[in-house]
């Protein structure tokens, strides 16, 4: 996925520092503005907690580390297959005021499997021979904090826009007959964020949720289309489809595409 790694040239490091500084300045101004909001009416249920599960398939997972002649580009799906694997996700939303909300998301993602390569592969300092079994593990866990502002509201429609602080904890590991190579990476990137809701009928709502950003070094896109049914004023459930796609191309090359069939159960309180 899109990363702000700690690369080897000064210009990229400066850009990383600048983006982080800008984001923190925006967050500071946001909270300063919210502290002075004279909004007497607060949501009846300011918090919602949602647990999501389902199945995930990896359509693509291309890796080359390092992204140079010292590394070989390969497909992790050759070792792990395409799935499906069980997936889970947790979201906690705080509606601070009618138009202002914060959301925290924990979204772990992982695949593992054993397979063989058809050619020698060099990865993270290790060399793996063709034809012999290779054990592989892939992890891409993400932690996100999102601020959204209710830009438009009508009888049926609600449109929110905002920004997400995205932290990812990624790791790729290969093992073969005493050879072990692993690459871990923790990083931060700011994303744009938006959501759209449409009330289909009483208790039924269509949802579009988006976090994403495209840059010269890569991209990250997490988009979901869901239908929500309100079981009661407190409990709700959803079902839908999510796509998580993106990657990075700098001193590392890593691009993945994941498709999710999902259901969730939520509580407003």
Report on this model:
- This protein has 269 residues and is mainly beta.
- Helices cover 11% and strands 63% of the residues.
- The protein has two helices and 14 strands, in the order H-E-E-H-E-E-E-E-E-E-E-E-E-E-E-E.
- The protein has helices spanning 10-35, 77-80; strands at residues 47-64, 74-75, 85-95, 100-107, 110-115, 121-123, 126-128, 134-153, 157-176, 179-201, 204-215, 218-230, 235-249, 253-268.
- It has a ten-stranded antiparallel beta barrel with strand order 1-3-4-8-9-10-11-12-13-14.
Can you lay out the helices and strands and say which pair or pack?
Elements: H1 10-35, E1 47-64, E2 74-75, H2 77-80, E3 85-95, E4 100-107, E5 110-115, E6 121-123, E7 126-128, E8 134-153, E9 157-176, E10 179-201, E11 204-215, E12 218-230, E13 235-249, E14 253-268
Antiparallel strand pairs: 1-2, 1-3, 1-14, 3-4, 4-8, 5-8, 6-7, 8-9, 9-10, 10-11, 11-12, 12-13, 13-14
């Amino acid at each position: 996925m899109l990363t702000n790694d700690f690369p080897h040239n000064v210009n990229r490091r400066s850009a990383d520092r600048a983006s982080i500084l800008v984001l923190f300045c925006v967050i500071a101004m946001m909270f300063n503005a919210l502290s002075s909001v004279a909004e007497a009416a607060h949501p009846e249920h300011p918090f919602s907690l949602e647990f999501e599960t389902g199945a995930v398939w990896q359509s693509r997972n291309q890796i080359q580390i390092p992204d140079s002649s010292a590394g070989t580009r390969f497909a992790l799906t050759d070792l792990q297959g395409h799935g499906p694997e069980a997936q889970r996700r947790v979201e906690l939303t705080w509606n601070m005021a009618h138009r202002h909300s914060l959301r925290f998301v924990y979204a772990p993602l992982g695949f593992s499997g054993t397979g063989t390569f058809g050619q020698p592969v060099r990865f993270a300092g290790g060399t793996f021979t063709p034809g012999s079994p290779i054990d592989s593990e892939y992890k891409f866990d993400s932690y996100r904090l999102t601020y959204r502002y209710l830009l438009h509201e009508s009888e049926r429609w609600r449109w929110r826009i905002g920004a997400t602080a995205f932290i990812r904890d990624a790791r790729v590991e290969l093992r073969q007959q005493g050879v072990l190579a692993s690459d871990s990476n923790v990083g931060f990137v700011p994303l744009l964020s938006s959501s759209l809701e449409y009330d289909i009928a009483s208790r039924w709502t269509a949802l579009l949720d988006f976090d994403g950003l495209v840059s010269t070094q890569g991209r990250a896109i997490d988009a979901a289309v869901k239908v929500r049914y309100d079981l009661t004023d407190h409990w709700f459930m959803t079902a839908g489809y999510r796509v998580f796609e993106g990657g990075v191309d700098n001193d590392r090359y890593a691009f993945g595409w994941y498709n999710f069939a999902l259901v969730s159960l939520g509580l407003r309180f």
